[in-house]
């Protein structure tokens, strides 16, 4: 007999990683979103409730990524069936932490689990990419790490374009989100249409160095490469309040480098100890508050695994 | 007592590797240049002879990279001493195989050996970069692999910017040089000054994939990434006679991908067996000859070690 209910968790993700703009992403150990799905007599997906960071989240299932991904999977594995979906948002919206991706992935994994997980993890990618495309463009640099965990290279949006890279032990991250809005569309619009060839060469060198550092397990080199972006961050810096000062605060707390997570406003500081990640998170939250901005932050690590089924009954 | 004579060998190198323009290079098992140095009563470096592929090579020691690098090392380790230098060119000039770099590296290593090798291998890098800069710009993507062997990532021209990457076993290369001139200056001049941001993202994805493939030891993926350049090769294709046809010939001989070596005209085809590398080299030479162009080619592999001292007596 089919289970009655399934709950899945999908983690926040840091996309871009400096010079890895649009191609690299990593999964965080926390925070994350949870989706619970239950059988329903109404066909398709009915959104039952959203809890947590739910301000301004679309209640229309056609605009909610958890519902879109769930519907996509449902059509594949049980086209006649109906489910209700409850979304527990652990992630703030529009924070640069892959909020829409986490919801999509949790939705896809939960529905799959409710029907006995007929699809493999990577087979859920199209559903997640489709959902992501409705709210923030067709890209996989958040959904792929949320689905698979670790550090992921995406050279496209299909399964064969997703490559797991090693996550070095000893990498600790401070992730801090100030309460400012940086709409993704605006963060895209400020990017240059073209870049000098020399800048392209620099970016390719830095991203090659970043991948090398991941394999070498060299945290200092990884931080140097992640901090080596000369194209994206300079174009977006003016959208991020107090960016220069915040990076300085992080450095003084022991962070090796600090990058913008996704399109911001979240900052992600790379540290080589748990202690310096905690110190950096605390210092950055205090700094933003001093500047009159509410902020939330935490020390975390790279999650080696991505989404997980946390309850089926 | 100091030895009388020292001979060093330095290999040909393939720089660029598709999307790794200006940042990746690899050392070939063959061909290479040899430099022999002997003590002399005249201070400094005297060029005694050049043999082999010596057409149009500058006899002026101030323009000859073997002599420039040798002088640089001599000033560091024995500023009062004098040597004579004999260069045996195994590499054709201006072929895109790092001819000037091989001479520079062989010169630096030979002088160091004559005086008991007081400098480490990487400490010879500045001499080689300096020599290279006189004839083809200040860059290390040929001299670093010629000096160190294997596949090398260069993010600058100093020792801390040189990173050894793994050379996957099972990679075989067909290296074929048609008798056409592609001056490096012209090959530089045809490059675009700026590239679309989307092209930059594509190139960073491909170079990240290339480094990942090297570590994963995945030859097919490596070839796919190396062939993924959309910026440099398209701009230079018109300088390379019959490029499209030659790539087709290589593919039909079993090559996985074919790239321009350095600034050309040499082509480097990536193969996964010795046999297909041999077949590709033979087919490409025959193809160029059919088109009325003399050509020389061979099947080779990545040299795990770079320059070596082959005789001291």
Could you please describe the fold and organization of this structure?
The structure is a homodimer of 313-residue chains. Chain A has 313 residues and is an alpha+beta fold. Chain A folds into two domains: 5-166, Ribosomal Protein S5, domain 2 (2-Layer Sandwich); 172-301, 2-Layer Sandwich (Alpha-Beta Plaits). Chain A contains ten helices and twelve strands. In chain A, helix 2 (99-114) runs antiparallel to helix 3 (125-136) and helix 6 runs antiparallel to helix 7. The N and C termini of chain A lie close together (11 Å). The model of chain A has no long low-confidence stretch (mean pLDDT 95). Chain A binds chain B through residues 19-24, 153-155, 163, 165, 191-197, 199-201, 203-212, 215, 231, and chain B through 19-24, 153-155, 163, 165, 191-197, 199-201, 203-212, 215, 231. Strand 8 of chain A pairs antiparallel with strand 8 of chain B.
Secondary structure layout:
2 copies of one chain form a homodimer.
Chain A: E1 5-15, E2 24-40, E3 44-52, H1 65-77, E4 82-89, H2 99-114, H3 125-136, H4 143-148, E5 151-154, E6 162-165, E7 172-178, H5 184-189, E8 194-196, H6 197-216, H7 219-226, H8 232-236, H9 243-252, E9 257-260, E10 267-271, H10 274-290, E11 295-301, E12 308-312
Parallel strand pairs in A: 3-4
Antiparallel strand pairs in A: 1-2, 1-12, 2-4, 2-5, 5-6, 7-10, 7-11, 9-10
Helix pairs in contact in A: 1-2, 1-3, 2-3, 6-7, 9-10
State the domain count of chain A: 2
Can you summarize the main beta sheet of chain A?
7 strands, mixed
* Helical residue percent band of chain A: 25-40%
The count of β-strands of chain A is 12
- Element string of chain A (H = helix, E = strand): EEEHEHHHEEEHEHHHHEEHEE
* Mean pLDDT across all amino acids of chain A: 95
**Strand percentage of chain A:** 25-35%
Second CATH tier, the architecture of the largest domain in chain A? 2-Layer Sandwich
The CATH topology assignment of the largest domain in chain A is Ribosomal Protein S5, domain 2
Distance between the termini of chain A: 11 Å
Oligomer: homodimer
Q: Categorize the overall geometry of chain A.
A: globular
Specify the CATH class of the largest domain in chain A.
Alpha Beta
Largest interface, per-chain counts? A-B, 33 and 33 residues
User: What is the CA-based Rg of chain A, rounded?
Assistant: 19 Å
Class per helix and strand makeup of chain A: alpha+beta
Number of helices of chain A: 10
Residue ranges of chain A: pLDDT <50 for 5 or more in a row?
Answer: none
